[in-house]
Amino acid sequence: MALTLRPLTLDDTDAVHDWARLPESCRYQAWGPNTHEQTQAYVRAAVVASPDRLVFGVLVDGEVVGSAELKLHGPSTGEIAYAVHPRRWGQGIATATARELLRLGFDRHGRHRIFATCDPRNLASAAVLRRIGMRYEGRMRGTALIRDGWRDSDLYAVLADD
Questions:
Q1: Where are the beta strands (DSSP E) in 12-148?
Q2: With CB atoms 3.0 to 4.6 Å apart as the test, which of 10, 19, 58, 96 could cross-link to 66 if both were Cys?
């Protein structure tokens, strides 16, 4: 599997929509399932995002199979997020993507601490975060309004010297 991250482009809209429209993709998210117009708006916003929000297409063997973000908070902290097409779940793509986001955050952007959050019910994402060396730091209550009501977020983080 040849995985690469590259800046998301407007040409990626249909590939992103292929998974952003699916209920299983957004089960634990505040967004979606997306209409095509909502996906277009997301991709347009990603393309013109400020320099502290880096949005990538996740490519496997040249095919866009997800998206990933590295948000730079102040001079020393980063936040990662990722989404992978459900047909590619269980193939190590989320783990490889998250590892690459950490590498970019620590090596290219000099972050001291990088964190991520996930819905406590999203056991697969929590496993990815642990697999890449992040430690569970706690639960934040009522952080996101999703289709079935307010949800909590579990917080994971790793330091550059961990």
A1: 53-60, 63-73, 77-84, 113-118, 135-146
A2: 58
Q: Tell me which residue of 12, 68, 60 sits closest to 40, measured CA to CA.
A: 12
In sequence order, which residues have a C-beta less than 8 Å from that of residue 28 and are 6 or more positions away? 118, 119, 121, 122, 125, 146, 151
Burial of 63 (0-12, 13-18, 19+ CB in 10 A): exposed
Q: What is the Cα–Cα distance from 98 to 115, expressed in whole angstroms?
A: 11
Bridge partners (DSSP) listed for residue 4: 59
Q: CB within 8 A of 80, min separation 6: which ones?
A: 68, 69, 70, 71, 98, 101, 102, 105, 114, 115, 116
Q: Which residue has the tokens 């929000």?
A: 53
Domains and CATH numbers, the chain: 3-115 (3.40.630.30)
- Looking at residue 152, its amino acid is D
Tokens matching residue 105: 């955050």
pLDDT in tens, 30-85: 888 999 999 999 999 999 989 999 999 999 999 999 999 999 999 999 999 999 99
Whole-prediction pTM? 0.95
What does the block give as tokens for 90?
């269980």
Helices (H) and strands (E) in the chain, counts: 4, 7
Residue 67's closest CA among 35, 51, 45?
45
